[in-house]
Amino acid sequence: MQNRVKSELFPQVQSLVRRLGQLCLLLYIFGGLIMGDCQAAEIEFKTSIAPLLCEHCLRCHQGSKAKAGLDFTTAMSALKGGEGGPVILPGNPAESLLIARIKNGSMPPEEDGRQLTPAEVQAFSTWIADGAKWPAGVVLKAK
Fold first, then answer.
1. pLDDT digits (tens, 9 = 90+) for 43-91
2. 80: number of Cβ within 10 Å
3. In this structure, which of 32, 98, 100, 125 has its CB flanked by the most CB atoms within 10 Å?
4. Assign residue 69 a region: left if phi > 0, alpha if psi is -120 to 50, beta otherwise?
5. Torsions phi, psi for 25 (to 5 deg)
6. How far apart are the C-alpha atoms of 117 and 96, rounded to whole Å?
7. In a 3-state reduction of DSSP, which class is residue 82?
8. For residue 113, what are the CA distances in angstroms to 6, 118, 142?
């Protein structure tokens, strides 16, 4: 009798264990993909934003002689803004003057070289949307 019960239940238990294993595998794979997408969306300042600022902005916007009083060399000075007030509003790219000036093509000025690509504009927008995080102690210098 015991053998008969074991032989009848064993395939059902085996099937249940197999299905649970498959479910766990799917959750692991899709959970990793979802988390990977979230992490990939965050913009890394040192590798994505800092090089753009150094290449396209610091020629005119650094130090005591920064145009319009806008200095992009430190977090404090960049977030303070210039003569017209703040240009970076952490968490709010739609209201950030920096994004508006990049999108309308007035920055960087045409005579200073190429305009930013759509991917670069998006990087700035995402960085600002994520809070415009600037690592402590990082000071930028023009190339």
1. 789 999 999 999 999 999 999 899 999 999 999 999 999 999 999 999 9
2. 15
3. 98
4. left
5. -65, -45
6. 18
7. strand
8. 78, 16, 15
